Amino acid sequence: MTNDFFLAVFENPPLVYAKKGIKDEEKHLIPESTIYVSLEPCAHFGKTPPCALKIVELGFKKVVIGAMDSHDKVNGKGKKIITDAGIEAVSGILEDECRELNKRFFTYHEKRRPFVILKWAESADGFMDQNFQPTQISNSLSKHLVHQMRSDEHAILVGKNTAVHDNPSLTVREVEGRNPIRILIDFSLDVPDTFNIYNEEAETIIFNSIKDLPDKHLKFIKIEKENSVRKILEKLYELQIQSVIQNTMENIS
């Protein structure tokens, strides 16, 4: 009988947890078992050793890989480590679904920018506010989902007008979870520093045309307004931010 271990491997910790989760009386089954991973196990040393080496150490009989890792440090090397150890490895299984599952990862490494999510609420007749004043359109369920989204994504972005008119906190309150990094685009630094987006509840990046300055939980980054969207995405890539919710529909360029 074949024993299957299902894992969506992104980096080493899931494998460690899997090992801890296997009962002592079941460990003898590993050499006859297949492990399923959504992404090719990594092959390089970072904060943790390579996932591929951990799979070899655990001694699985077969590895089924959903999508190969296009990152330069992996890109087939993880699979090679596994096959060189005499373990059967097949790849490209449900590849489209696995790429969708890991779309933030692939966007970041292949397009060298964060994965961007556009988020807004509008009425059935196409309005988002009333006379530029905050207007309740969403309900309690959608509000809950929005806060879950904030917790799931790396960062959340607004422009100056949204920050001034709505004075949002952009933090996670309706669910348990971490606050995303807040990103404000305010070229002239018109948003008062007493507004919620400047509070100490979350790390905040302010793209502007006036100053470069790290200040406790605030990071002011100076950029030119011309081609600003491209420059902002490039900078966020440098800061290793993999996903951003754009919480504004205003023209930020």
Summarize the structure in words.
This protein has helices at 12-21, 51-58, 77-84, 95-101, 103-110, 140-152, 160-166, 228-238, and strands at residues 3-6, 33-39, 62-67, 88-91, 115-118, 155-159, 181-185, 204-208, 213-215, 218-222, 243-246. It has 253 residues and is an alpha/beta fold. It folds into two domains: 3-105, Cytidine Deaminase, domain 2 (3-Layer(aba) Sandwich), CATH 3.40.140; 115-246, 3-Layer(aba) Sandwich (Dihydrofolate Reductase, subunit A), CATH 3.40.430. A seven-stranded mixed sheet has the order 5-11-6-7-8-10-9. α3 (77-84) links the parallel β3 (62-67) and β4 (88-91). 26% of the residues are buried. The model is unreliable at 5-14 (pLDDT under 50).
Provide the descriptors you would attach to this structure in a database record.
Dihydrofolate Reductase, subunit A, Cytidine Deaminase, domain 2, single chain, 253 residues, 7-stranded mixed beta sheet, alpha/beta
The beta-strand count equals 11
Question: Could you name the CATH homologous superfamily of the largest domain?
Answer: Dihydrofolate Reductase, subunit A
Molecular shape:
elongated
Tally of separate helices: 8
Calculate the terminal CA-CA distance, rounded to whole Å.
59 Å
CATH topology of the largest domain: Dihydrofolate Reductase, subunit A
